[in-house]
Design goal:
about 130 residues; three-stranded antiparallel beta sheet; three-stranded mixed beta sheet; 6 strands
């Protein structure tokens, strides 16, 4: 028998699956991948919406989505570090506006250490090994 839920309970006594959700996705090399978001505390979370209208209101009309059951969403995002599923989040930060203040990545130098980075790495290594 389940205990009744009161307003003081941090979580309900039983977890109920949210059912089929509208899950925001991004294109990937092998198809679509579920988008992961961050909670206000910085933890990774998967996100699902109970209606297309809720997804569009939060993320915009151009956001691609797929339908997934809540247990399936948990299963595919848990190995990526998303321990929770947030259903129908109300707030999201706007996407950064394109402009001169945004740096673009140069594919030829992506992942390359800069001169100052190399110097810092050498100093750190000499400190720990010396």
């Amino acid at each position: 028998m389940a205990r009744p839920v009161s307003d003081e309970d941090p979580e309900p006594s039983e977890r109920f699956p949210a059912g089929p959700l509208y899950v925001p996705v991004r294109p990937g090399p092998l198809g679509h991948a579920a988008r992961l978001f961050r909670t206000p505390l910085g933890d990774r979370t998967a996100v699902g919406f109970t209606s297309e209208r809720a997804l569009t209101a939060t993320l915009g009309a151009g956001q691609p989505w797929v339908r997934l059951a809540e247990p399936a969403l948990r299963t595919i995002t848990a190995p990526l570090g998303a321990a929770t599923v947030t259903v129908d989040p109300q707030l999201s930060a706007p996407a950064p506006a394109p402009g001169p203040h945004r740096r673009t990545r140069n594919p030829r130098t992506s992942g390359a250490l800069r001169g100052a980075g190399i110097a810092a790495l050498v100093m750190a290594l000499s400190y720990w090994t010396g």
